[in-house]
Automatic annotation (TrEMBL):
SUPFAM superfamilies: Formyltransferase (SSF53328)
Function of the molecule: Catalyzes the transfer of a formyl group from 10-formyltetrahydrofolate to 5-phospho-ribosyl-glycinamide (GAR), producing 5-phospho-ribosyl-N-formylglycinamide (FGAR) and tetrahydrofolate.
Protein name: Phosphoribosylglycinamide formyltransferase
UniProt similarity note: Belongs to the GART family.
Reactions mediated catalytically: N(1)-(5-phospho-beta-D-ribosyl)glycinamide + (6R)-10-formyltetrahydrofolate = N(2)-formyl-N(1)-(5-phospho-beta-D-ribosyl)glycinamide + (6S)-5,6,7,8-tetrahydrofolate + H(+)
GO molecular function terms attached to this record: phosphoribosylglycinamide formyltransferase activity
Highest taxon in the source lineage: Bacteria
Binding site for N(1)-(5-phospho-beta-D-ribosyl)glycinamide: G11, S12, N13
One Pfam family recorded for the sequence: Formyl_trans_N
EC number: 2.1.2.2
InterPro entries, per the entry: Formyl_transf_N, Formyl_transf_N_sf, GART
Enzyme class, UniProt record, top EC level: transferase
Keywords assigned: Purine biosynthesis, Transferase
């Protein structure tokens, strides 16, 4: 299976995914693309020998469709079977999502359906939650709401700040996403729960 990964920033999830696709893994990373040409993850991808592409979304302003048409060029050229959104911070239009229906995954840093959207860790702290975590789901046109493919739970500890909790969740993301992708690439769809 050919996997394209979309990033917006440092790409730590992308690195974990690329590093997991070795040996008898049924998938290989064929492209890392970003909406930010300065995304740090692009350098890491190149260092790992993965093809990269960048389409700056800013010149397109509110023309979401125009940005996506430009992004689709290198993405389709890579002929991906699966698309992984990994720290990708742009909302995709239903047209783009439809094109990859059933084969586009995203990782969200909360135990969905709790805390869709942004600032998930602060919201969990404000709510006094004892647990937090991350969710891998299929991407549908409804933001952060597609069929769940996996979840990893972490404890909220006394004295946690949004940053300390984010770091603990991010470490869990780096375990969950590669495990879910491997199963997804083998055709499994029942959700995986960690630990
Ligand atoms: C992190 O907040 C992570 O929780 C979320 O996207 C952000 C950046 O992740 N999935 P990455 O390091 O770019 O993968």
């Amino acid at each position: 299976k050919r996997v394209a990964i979309l990033i917006s920033g440092g790409g730590s999830n992308m690195v974990a995914l690329v590093r997991s696709m070795t040996g008898d893994h049924p998938a290989r990373a064929v492209l890392v693309a970003s909406n930010d040409p300065e995304a740090g993850g692009l350098v890491k991808a190149r260092e790992m020998g993965v093809e990269t592409a960048a389409v700056d979304h800013r010149p397109f302003g509110r023309d979401r469709a125009g940005f996506e048409a430009a992004l689709l060029e290198p993405v389709l050229a890579a002929k991906p079977d699966i698309l992984c959104l990994a720290g990708f911070m742009r909302v995709l239009t239903p047209d783009f999502v439809q094109r990859f229906a059933g084969r586009m995954l995203n990782i969200h840093p909360s135990l969905l359906p709790k805390y869709p959207g942004l600032r998930t860790h602060q919201r969990a702290l404000d709510a006094g939650d004892a647990e937090a975590g991350c969710t891998v789901h299929e991407v549908t046109s409804e933001l952060d709401a597609g069929p769940m493919l996996g979840q990893a739970r972490v404890p909220v500890l006394p004295g946690d700040t949004a940053d300390s909790l984010a770091a603990r969740v991010l470490a869990a993301e780096h375990k969950l996403y590669p495990a879910v992708l491997r199963r997804f690439a083998q055709g499994a769809r029942e959700p995986l729960f960690l630990p």
